[in-house]
Amino acid sequence: MSAISIAGTAETAEQARPRRAHWYRQPALIAGLVLLAIILFMVLAAPLLTSYNPDTQNLSATLQGFSSRHLLGTDQEGRDTFTRLLYGGRTDLQVAFLAVLFPFILGTVLGSVAGYFGGWVDILIMRLVDIVVAFPFFVLIIALVFVLGPGQRSIYVAITLVGWVSYARIIRGEILVAKRQEYVLAARSGGLSSLRIMGRHLLPNVITQAIVYAMSDIVQDILAIVTLSYLGLGIQPPTPDWGTMISDGQNFLTTHWQLTTIPGIAVVITGLALSLVGDGLADLLRPGQS
Amino acid sequence: MGRMTFVIRRLLLLIPTALGVTIIAFFMIHLIPGDPAATILGIHATPRAVAILHHQWGLDRPLASQYWLFMDRLVHGNLGQSLYYRVPVSGLITSRIPATLWLIAYAAVIAVVISVPLAMIAASRKDAVRDHVVRVIPLLGLGMPAFWLALILQSELAVKLHLFPVTGYGQGPIGHLHSMFLPALTVAVALCPVVIRSLRASMLNVLGADFITTAKAKGVPGSRLFIRHVLRNAVIPAVTVLGINIGFLIGGTLIVEQVFSVPGIGSLMINSIFQRDFPVVQAVALVFGVMVVLVNLLTDMAYASLDPRVRFDR
Lengths: 290, 314
Known about the structure:
The complex is a heterodimer of chains A (290) and B (314).
Chain A: E1 5-6, H1 9-15, H2 27-44, H3 46-49, H4 81-117, H5 119-134, H6 137-148, H7 152-178, H8 182-189, H9 194-230, H10 242-249, H11 258-285
Chain B: H1 3-31, H2 36-41, H3 47-56, H4 63-75, H5 89-124, H6 129-142, H7 146-160, H8 172-179, H9 181-207, H10 210-217, H11 222-244, H12 246-259, H13 265-274, H14 278-306, E1 310-311
Helix pairs in contact in B: 1-14, 5-6, 5-9, 5-11, 5-12, 6-9, 7-9, 7-12, 9-11, 9-12, 11-14, 12-13, 13-14
């Protein structure tokens, strides 16, 4: 929450975007959706696309190059890289989607409460936001996973404890504006309970902003998960995951570059797809703030 | 609200945030499952060693008294004792902080050098091909794991082409500039997406302002208009963006320091995690938190004194 604003920015924002936004007129959104669909298909249909098991070692075929038998070669334990890439993506995307869900819910609830009730509840929650925001995201995530102990459960807990603040800020800001609108005043004078007004009337109107943010948040969560796994704090072997693949491959970087490079490219492309979708959604849902 | 009131208010707001940062750092120990001392010591957890740690960390006292002890030591500059190095943590941190500050400053400069021209290219013609191309670059950078880029740059430019040292911090300012180029570049690449986006948006905002229309009507040539009028007015928001993203910038240094063996506090934290050296991890997290709070304060103050249009509402 910045205490500072520049006079005149609001007017220029309003001038932009005379035309109506349609989803099919958003090349970024379409490109992102297509890319994301391909990635999701590949990781979900992994058993159909490859006949290997991601964990089966074959010590007679280690560190092989590209071939028709092993599309992307094999790693130091003779495991098929293409197979591990697909199953690794499955793990990382699954953890990332779950990891974004918890802070989304917690932040939305706390942000709604802060925005709707105001007063000391608001002050308390927003002070908490300021404190969590003071820590660099990666520093706090890594420190929390370290104290909680490595593994998926710690990833969820750490990302929830750190990630809720952005959602709380967004939802609070939206609620502050929306609660002054006539339909809310009407609902209140009609005698509806605060819970009902928040849940049935306010939330459906303010949740889009949080959903748009969630798309870019997933990218950050994937990076956090991959980074934690690279450090050995995240997803534990033998479960395949892109971070562990990069970490395993780094000892062979000068001789077998593909072992480290390919999983990294997979992370970048996934991030690109999600960012394109996020940006496209933002353009579509909140015109004037491109 | 006057300027003085704003400064005082901003300083007062610092107190609860700074206290909160210490509370979070303090509470980390209580998130450790089971007996923190026994868990941290692992296979070395003899009853005697556990008891010593309990006494050292004040775990044998009530919670409020533990926090009081923590704060009392903190204000006296005592950040605890490293379990691995067996020396005071404060000494470890002060000896390693220069490398981290170098890296942060170097990365910020590189980020500005990369971002300003790109943002100018994008903003010079909104929605043209060049604008779309520049807008995709940040999206590639946003999803790029810093440690991965660090490994690739290290292997290609340092190991294979010998253009830069593979690891280390170098000797003297020139040595630092040479040795830290790849680490700083890696951190900058992570930061660029955010800076390019904000800079492009603020340049577009400036381009729509009345004084630009006036300048155009007066016949100021395009290049001059861009540098003298647009860039000048867009730089303040860019500096603020850097300030606001200091947390992001600092977070990026952790792993990059580790990959390039830069002797900063980021690599100290990661190594201490591997050595299960809890007091060091806790202290570095605290130092990073305090650093961010202070930079945010400085950014707000600088912003308020640089830009006469700033309003002090709320």
